[in-house]
Amino acid sequence: MMHTDRDTFPSYRGEMEYVCQQCGARYSGQELYYTCPECSGVFLLQDLCFPRLLETPGQRWREIFDRRAMSKHPALRGIFRFYELISPILEVDDIVWLGEGNTPIVNANSGLQAVAGQPLAYKNDGQNPSASFKDRGMACALSAIKAMARKHSWDQVLTVCASTGDTSAAAAMYAAYVGPPVTSVVLLPQGRVTPQQLGQPLGSGAVVLELPGVFDDCMRVVEYLADHYRIALLNSKNSWRILGQESYAFEVAQWYDWDVSGKALFVPIGNAGNISAIMAGFIKLHRLGIISGLPRIFGVQSSHADPVYRYYSQPQGQRSYAPVSVSPSVAQAAMIGNPVSFPRVAALVQEYEKTGGEGSFNVIQVTEEAIMEGMLLANRHGHIACTQGGECMAGLLRAKELGLLEHKETAILDATAHSLKFMGFQEMYFQDRFPPEYGVHPRDELRNQPQPVLSEQDTAHLSAQDFAARAAEEIVRRLGLT
Ligand SMILES: *Cc1c(COP(=O)(O)O)cnc(C)c1O
Ligand SMILES: [Zn+2]
Question: How many domains does the chain have?
């Protein structure tokens, strides 16, 4: 009999439960919770049936995931290639796939490896459909919402998020795809978003509401709404998003044939959801015997928004966490002084270090200038890193400087968004227009500007043929062609 892809849709079903990271309370994963009703703590979602997955040997899992990598089944093309490890309560029709996941890992060329002095590669999460890694989490969150709407026969679901960037772009796009009964609402601080950031949710048809104030003001409004009305909040505390973002770790492991020892992953930290998910993902793979060793994780923060760095730079046993007030940062998507996922990081690092040992988790602090230089350096060698991807490059160079890397360790840098989303900072660098609070002074060799060849005046009276000849001659002169 012919094997269709539908035959291979997993039959395993788990049972998801929310676990509060603050008070330990547990709630059924069949319902929609944003934060703990007892204590407002953040959740991590757990599959209670996970021990059953342990009955399948690691080698078998590797074969299953490798076979699924060839599947043409849309529900298994993206993050749900790893169905059993993400949210194994969804039915095939609940799963939303818009092309997210399976982003390429691109090795640095020899020029960039020479500058970095280290084998390295970029994982281009900007090649997700809304051009950032946020799509991984949104694919999972909207699939879960779709499933709940179906089971409970909800006739209206408002998905709401406050955001100044990639979260709202992803939320609006996935909600637009799911369609009724889901409607997407985005709250933005008036006048504090770039045209690209505003354009994405508008283009997806979301209700875009603007409020005077900053992001935090919008956040308080959506949390008030969530406390009083039935809405689905898609902000960073949403634990379904964490599950989807674990797929980054699974894909890295699979790309390297399930051998990630000797690898060092560099990840920018903002609200710390992404780094939490990546650690949680590797821990799962390790528990199931799919990988035998953990890669090292290097979180990276700008000195303008570095609460996690500050926490981990204190001696073990004497650490205390304090939010910081941020200064403007080119790594704007990570410009957060009080990361909502900090409790998740604290819990996961303990577990990670238990298996990975000392040095398996690190946080590096970098300057704004190093972030810009890191981004430009990468992109001048053929990459498409955003400023946060540049932050990873800066983190790698800094970690080397600190002697934290083994000579042969391969660095995998997370380019969390596409460079196009953050073009404004590149332009400021090239034009030397950074406001002083960034502390960014461009280096001439990294700047680039369009060069006018001839003026209107020069060419006003030329025939088309003479124009071409004049222009070509001028270009020959400029380029020194012989
Ligand atoms: C959201 C975001 C980050 C920060 O990720 P966290 O999960 O908040 O730590 C980094 N880079 C980009 C491009 C983002 O959109
Ligand atoms: Zn709680």
Answer: 2
Q: Dig out the tokens for 225 from the structure.
A: 């709404």
371 and 470 co-located in one domain? no
Question: pTM surpassing 0.85?
Answer: yes
Distance from the alpha carbon of residue 35 to the mean position of ligand 2, in angstroms: 8
pLDDT tens figures, 134-163: 999 999 999 999 999 999 999 999 999 988
**Domain co-membership, 426 together with 457:** no
- Whether the bond into 181 is cis, omega within 30 of 0: yes
From ligand 1's centre to the CA of 236, what distance in Å?
A: 10
- Using CA atoms, how far residue 161 sits from 130, 146, 198, 274, in Å, is 16, 17, 13, 17
Which range, of 144-158, 232-246, 451-465, averages the lowest pLDDT?
A: 451-465
Give residue 474's Cα distance to chain centre. Answer: 45
Q: Residue 473 belongs to what domain range?
A: 451-482
Ligand 1 shell residues, CB under 6 Å = 132, 134, 165-166, 236, 268-275, 333-334, 386, 388, 416-417
| Ligand 1 center–CA 466 separation, angstroms | 52
Give the residue, out of 274, 329, 335, with the most ligand 1 atoms within 8 A of its beta carbon, to mutate for a pocket test.
Answer: 274
Count Cβ atoms within 10 A of the Cβ of residue 240 and give its class: 0-12 exposed, 13-18 middle, 19 or more buried. Answer: buried
Report which bound ligand comes closest to the CA of 170.
1
Give 473's contacts (C-beta < 8 A, 6+ positions apart): none
Going by pLDDT thresholds of 50, 70 and 90, the confidence category of residue 7 is: low
